[in-house]
Amino acid sequence: MAAERHYSPPEISEPTLMETVLHHGLFFGAIFQLLCVLAIILPVSQSRKTDSDGSGTKTWQAVKKPKASAAQLSKKPKKESKKKR
C-alpha cells in the first residue's frame, strides 16, 4: 500500500505588465528614498569659488530684495468715502 505521491510545485502565472511596472516602480522609489535620506545625513561641502577682488559677485542676501511684512501690507492708506454736500 505504499502509493507514490508526486508533489508538483504550484503553477505560477507569468507576471502581468501592471505587476511588472508596480515592482519596478517600488524598487526605484525605495532607491530614491534611500538617496534622499543619505543626502540629509551626509553633509555636502558648499565651497564656492570667489574672485580675488570680489567686486563682481554678490551674495544671495545682498541680491535678495526685502519683502514687506503682512502687517505693513494690511495698513494701506484708506480712501475717504465721505461725500461733501
TrEMBL record:
It is found in: Membrane. InterPro entries: UPF0239. Residues 75-85 have a biased composition (Basic residues). Residues 46-85 are annotated as: Disordered. The keyword Zinc-finger does not apply. Keywords: Membrane, Transmembrane, Transmembrane helix. It is a single-pass membrane protein. The chain crosses the membrane at residues 20-42. One of its GO terms (cellular component) is membrane. Its main location: membrane. Belongs to the UPF0239 family. PANTHER family: MANNOSIDASE, BETA A, LYSOSOMAL-LIKE, MANBAL PROTEIN, PROTEIN MANBAL. This is Protein MANBAL. It comes from Gallus gallus (Chicken). The gene is LOC121111575.
